[in-house]
Amino acid sequence: MSRIKACFDRLKKEGRGALLPYLEAFDPDRETSLALLRQMPEAGADLIEVGVPFSDPSADGPTIQLAAQRGLKAGATLKGVLDLIHEFRKENDHTPIILMGYYNPIDRYGVERFCKDARAADVDGLIVVDLPPEESEELAPYARAEGLDMITLTAPTTPDDRLKAILKDASGFVYYVSITGITGTRSATEDQLKAAMTRLKAATDLPVVAGFGISTPEQARIASRISDGAVVASAIIKDMAATYDEHGHATAKSLPTALDKIRSLAKAVRG
Amino acid sequence: MPADTSITSQLNSLRTGPDERGHFGIHGGRFVAETLMPLMLELEKAYNHAKTDPQFQEELDYYLRHYVGRPSPLWHAKRLSETLGGAQIYLKREELNHTGSHKLNNVMGQILLARRMGKTRIVAETGAGQHGVATATVCALFGLECEIYMGATDVERQKPNVFRMHLLGAKVHPVTAGAGTLKDAMNEAMRDWVANVENTYFLVGTVAGPHPYPAMVRDFQSIIGTEAREQIQEQTGRLPDAVIAAIGGGSNAMGIFHPFLDDADVPLYGVEAAGLGLDSGKTAASIARGKPGVLHGNRTYLLQDDHGQITEAHSISAGLDYPGIGPEHSWLNDIGRVNYVSATDQQALEAFQTLTRLEGIIPALESAHAVAHAIVMAPTMKKDQTIIVNLSGRGDKDVPTVAAHLGVKL
Ligand SMILES: Cc1ncc(COP(=O)(O)O)c(C=O)c1O
C-alpha cells in the first residue's frame, strides 16, 4: 500500500484530519532544510510537502517567493531536492513526501527520467501547480508507471461538472485550494470551506485536504475537521524567515522556531 | 476577424492554428493553475462567440477607424532606401495609431470583449509601458478600473509612460521581484488576476500566455498585415520581397506576418533583441538562445538554465526585454516559415538615429530593431525589390534612454 493511503487510513482510525506542513527545499540552505525535514514528523507532520524552488512562482505570494529565491541562491535544483528526500528516507520510511512545484524544471529534467528518479528517491506524490488536467497527460502516464500519485488541484472556481471530470482519475488525495488567490494572503471562512467539502465529497471518495490561507492553529484545527487535512506553508516559512540574519542565513533560532510552529499546529489538529 | 475563405487557404494553410487545445505544434497550450483554468475556458467561449458575431466586428471596426485612427499608412521611405542603395523600404506606420504604437489594436479588441463579459476591473502587464498606456487609455474611455503591473526597472527607464498612465487614471504597481522587468510584471499581473477572478479581466499585451490569448491577440493584430498586404499591392502592384518586424512577445510581428503566412514567396523576418550580443549572456533572443519550456501559461522557447530556471533577459528596449516569445512564433520557427534573426542594442541605437535623420520619423527602440535588420538586408537586395518594415511604435518614450546612451544630459 502507498504511504499516502496508509497514512490517511491510519488517521481515519484515529478519527482526525492530517497536518501537512510545507517546507521550501534549500531555504535558506541545504543543511537547515534537511534538518527541518527530518524533525518535522516528530513535531507532528503527518505528510510533508516539499516545495521545489522556481524562478517564477506565479501562484505564490511574497513569503514563498522569497523562500524560493533563497533556495535557488543556496543552489537548489530539482536533482538536489530529490537527493534531499533520498537522505531523509534513510531515517524515515513512513511519512509521505509530496513534491510541490512548477512544471518547467520537470520538463527540462525530462519527465520520464524525473519520474524514475523521484521514485528512486521514494517520493510519494507530485503537485504541479501549472499543469492542469488539460495538459497533465504530458506527465501523468510516467508518474503512474512509477507509482507516484499525481495530486489533483481543485479550486473555488472549479464548477461541479468539471470537478467530476477532473477527479475521475485522481489518486492519492485531492488538494483543495481554498481561496481564489495566491499563497499566504487571505483565508476561507468556515462556511465556505464546509460548502466546498460538500461539493468535493460528492465528486470523489479520496481524502481531500485544504490549503492556501491556513496560518493559525485554530484555522488548522477547523480545516482539518471539515476536510481530511490542513496544509500550512507561508505561516511556517514566515516565522522561520523572521529568525534569519541580515544576510538571510539561518541562526540558532531558525529550526526551533519552525518546529515550535509545527508543534502548535499539530496540537490543535490533534486536540 | 474576417475569415479567409479561399479553398487553397483552407486546405493547406499555415493560418488555421492553433488546434482546439491551443497548441501550435509542440508549443502553446494552457499551463495555468486550476483556479484560472475555468476562466480560460470561459474566455475562450466568449471570444469564439464574439469572433463570429457581426455586431462585435462592427463595433470594433468603428473604434479602430474613429478612435485608433486606422488604417495606418504604408510609407515608402525613399531617402532611407536610396541611402542604403538596395531594396525599397516601406514602413507600416503603426506608430501613428492613437497612443503611439500597435498595442491599441489588441487592447481595443479585448476591452470590447471584457465589456461583453461584464468585467469591471482590468489588470495588465507592461514592459515599455506602451501596452500599459493603451490599456489605461481604453479604461479611461470606458470608465473601467485599471491596474497596471510594471517592473521597477522599467518604471525607471520609461518614466514618461508611467506618468501618462497616472494621468489616464490607472494605478501603476512597480514590481521589484527578479530584475524588475516584463517577466516579473507578468507574474504579478497573474497573481492579481487569480485573486480577483470574479470582476477582473486580464488584458494580455502580446501573443503569449495561455490559450486563447496567443490566438486572440494575433487575430486583433492581424489588421496590420491585412492592410499592409493590400497597400503594398496598391502601391507596387505586387507582394513584398520581405517583411520585417521586431519581437518582444511577438504581437506586432504576428500581426503583420499572419496575413502573409500562405504567401510562400514572401520571406518573413522576426528580429529578436540580441542585447549586448547573442553570446554575451545579456540578451533577449529566446529563439536564438533559448530552449522550449513552460512559463506564463504556454510552452515556447525560453531563456533558461540547465535546471529549468528562467534566466533574466536583457535589451536596451524595455518592450523586448522578455525571456520568452509567443508560441506561434516558436512553431513558425520550427517549421521554417519565418526566419528569426537578431539586432543588438548598438544596432538598434544606430537605426533609431538613422531613421530619424533620413525620414523624420523617430521610432520606438523596439521598432528600431526591425529597422536595423532592414539596414542589413536592403543593400543585399535589388533596387526593384521591396521590404515592409513594421514600425510598431514611436520613440518619444525612448528619448531619455537614447540621450543617456549618447551621453547627453536632458
Ligand atoms: C512599440 C513597440 N514595439 C514592439 C513591442 C514588443 O511587443 P510585441 O513583440 O508583442 O509586438 C513593444 C512592447 O512594448 C512596443 O512598445
TrEMBL record, chain A:
This is Tryptophan synthase alpha chain. The keyword Kinase does not apply. CDD domains: Tryptophan_synthase_alpha. InterPro entries: Aldolase_TIM, RibuloseP-bd_barrel, Trp_synthase_suA. GO terms for molecular function: tryptophan synthase activity. It comes from Bombella pluederhausensis. Tetramer of two alpha and two beta chains. Gene3D superfamilies: Aldolase class I. The alpha subunit is responsible for the aldol cleavage of indoleglycerol phosphate to indole and glyceraldehyde 3-phosphate. Pfam families: Trp_syntA (PF00290). Pathway: Amino-acid biosynthesis; L-tryptophan biosynthesis; L-tryptophan from chorismate: step 5/5. The keyword Disulfide bond does not apply. Keywords: Amino-acid biosynthesis, Aromatic amino acid biosynthesis, Lyase, Tryptophan biosynthesis. It catalyses: (1S,2R)-1-C-(indol-3-yl)glycerol 3-phosphate + L-serine = D-glyceraldehyde 3-phosphate + L-tryptophan + H2O. Belongs to the TrpA family. The gene is trpA. Its EC number is 4.2.1.20.
TrEMBL record, chain B:
It holds the Pfam family PALP. CDD domains: Trp-synth_B. Residues 1-15 have a biased composition (Polar residues). GO terms for molecular function: tryptophan synthase activity. It is an enzyme of class 4 (lyase). PROSITE patterns: TRP_SYNTHASE_BETA. NCBIfam families: trpB. This is Tryptophan synthase beta chain. It comes from Bombella pluederhausensis. The gene is trpB.
